[in-house]
User: What shape does this take?
Amino acid sequence: MGSLPSFAPDQPHRDPQLPDDLVRLLRRAQRVTVLTGAGMSAESGVPTFRDAQTGLWSHFDPEDLATPRAWARDKALCNAWYLWRVHLVRSVEPNAGHRALAEWATLPGRQIHIVTQNIDDLHERAGSTVLAHLHGSLFAWRCDRCHAPAPTPNAPPTPVERLDPDRCRHCADGDIRPGVVWFEEPLPATEFDLAIDVCRDTDLVVVVGTSGMVQPAASLPHLAGANGIPVVEVDPRETLLTEAATVSLRASAGGALPAMVRAVALE
Ligand code: APR
Assistant: This one.
């Protein structure tokens, strides 16, 4: 277990010097599982959830927006908020970290499995295939009664406080809700099982930009550790997962991941 204090969080773009033990782990690993959280997309301009100044949760109470009860209580408020996030994600681009992960998968003999808590599509737009979207997707809407899939509704270009959801065209009885996993809802079973498999049976787990505060996703690095698999953490700050990490890199995703992939490519 270790923590390297050399990278200041306020210098996200500095190319970090990678410690030798990390470079060894990276070069040895042929199968790599990457678990990403909101910090992965922060440098693209998507706010994280729990960072003090910019986190969306610091402006909104999650209970008002991200539970089934909240949806039942005020569908127009929830719908408007998620559609604002659709617009936000569509207006940003993948960052150097997303691109580095896509490049890693093209290196000979390397297999990269991405498991993300993010509901954006920035990994895919950078060219990666995502094995599991643990918390669903902003681009997979469905009926809240009959569960029929529905197209992503039109997102207003400026945030509005309330917007009635579309009605379901199949059952005509339900409303179209975002296909994200809310607090108190179970994770999609198939995706979580896939995530467990690739955290138990892999050479290395890299955890990027997650506070480790939300279960069960936060249990995955511990599962890897319990199976003797090294865990590398990339985050500008100490997190609840730092203790489970073999190496912690105090750096941003956009700074660290390109350097890590370069270290593998230059082997
Ligand atoms: N690069 C890497 N990490 C970063 C960066 C960056 N540029 N900027 C911030 N971070 C880190 C923060 O230090 C923090 O540890 O990203 C983490 C973000 O944590 P959270 O905001 O809690 O996001 P996350 O862990 O993904 O949240 C989990 O909570 O609300 C739910 O469903 C939502 O999927 C989300 C889940």
User: Anything to note?
Assistant: Residues 10 and 100 are 21 Å apart (CA to CA). Residues 1-14 have pLDDT under 50 and may be disordered.
